[in-house]
Amino acid sequence: MTTATGSVAAANPFGVRFLLPLALGSCLNPINSTMIATALVPIAAEFHASVAQTGWLIAALYLVCAVAQPTLGRIADLVGARRVYLASLVLVMIAGVGGRVAPSLGWLVVVRMLLGIGTSGAYPSAMRLFRERADATGSPPPRTAMGLLSLMGVATAAVGPVLGGVLTGAFGWHAIFTVNVPLALVTLLLVLAWIPKDPPRKVRRSLWKELDVVGISLFSGALLAVMVFLLDIDHPRWLALPIAAACAALLAWHSLRRPDPFIDLRMLAKHTPLSLTYLRAMVAFTVVYCIFYGFAQWVEGAGGYSPAQAGMATLPLSILAGVGSVAGARTKGLRGPFLLAFACSVVGGIALWCIDAASPLWLMAAAVAVFGIPQGLVSVTTQAAVYIQAPPGQIGTASGLQRTFSYIGAMAATAVIGACYGHKPTDAGLHLLAGTMVGVSALLFIATLFDRTLPRVDDVSKPHS
User: Fold this and answer.
1) Which residue ranges does the record assign to the Major facilitator superfamily (MFS) profile domain (predicted)?
2) CATH assignment at residue 347
3) Which residues of the chain carry a pLDDT beneath 50?
4) Is residue 7 one of the residues assigned to a domain?
5) How far apart are CA 250 and CA 246, in angstroms?
């Protein structure tokens, strides 16, 4: 039986049984990132909260994820990806129950933070498992398999506002939390059944010493200080800026002196292509998340539509995001998909300029739909770039850092939306947001066009040694 199973795994190392548990778990983070978009207004109404206060429901999750992704990726490299995956799924179920009984907005923010930790374990664990399976079978980079992983993530992120709107309309906003319990439970059972156990690992030091607790704390402090400043830009807390700068400076000083720091500045300096990939992802996902949160709030606040209707308006975007992921998975190069993605973002921004609150819902949906293509293409192409450019022994950590930079982009998006919308979403605010996205996307297009660090098509298809 074992021999037969091993021969099947060797012939088809990335089959359905291996991919399905990884894809399902990797969906949990993106769907929870966007599902709340159409529930913000009902949550604010129940807890009598302002836009800035509910913004912490978004920022808290991304702040935690920005730290937890590389941390859990490091732990997966050290003690085993399957172990980290299973523990993360248990935390997701606990957060699902906590969201159902949350008595206040502050409690809900804490639940979102726990949800961020739990959903952060799947992606770096999956990338580590991909690497181990490819190395064991001598396979080239499993781009099609990783494309499916990205497709599931992109599709669920894109359909998140739709699902959130339907669940909120049918069962109330609590349902966007409790739905995590059955999703995580099914995934956990599939991982136990189909994912091989981790091989024995010898950790050189205790896990506490392996983790850069000081670096994690300084990085968290810098991000938190920046978000405190940006999320209340109308009443800026200027003290937050020197605190953020001090934390960043101390982080750099500490990281350059530690052999294996949380943010490995030496690795980033040594691997320039990887560093540029991270920066490109951060800026690109700022645009992506401006659409996720800015569009839904404008449709509800300025257009007067319900959460369910606002969610349905993003359905064409969801479909095109899936198309973009499939196209990215089938394309061997990196530069071409990136250029197409940024060109589509420019077109999408121009389309948003042409609508207002009086436009019919179908026209709003059509205008925003084109942003689905860059969402799908950027996600899967960035994933492939990190797989190729990262040091093989640090793929879990590198994949976690990829998500960290994406989440920094998401947090930046909340600040951009706040600056463009002010106290409430308006047509003028949407058009200002659209103009900002057009300018940023155009700059990304030009920078990528002249980026000589991106590998050629032939290099992308080679096995990663």
Assistant:
1) 18-453
2) 1.20.1250.20
3) 1-8, 458-461, 463-465
4) no
5) 6
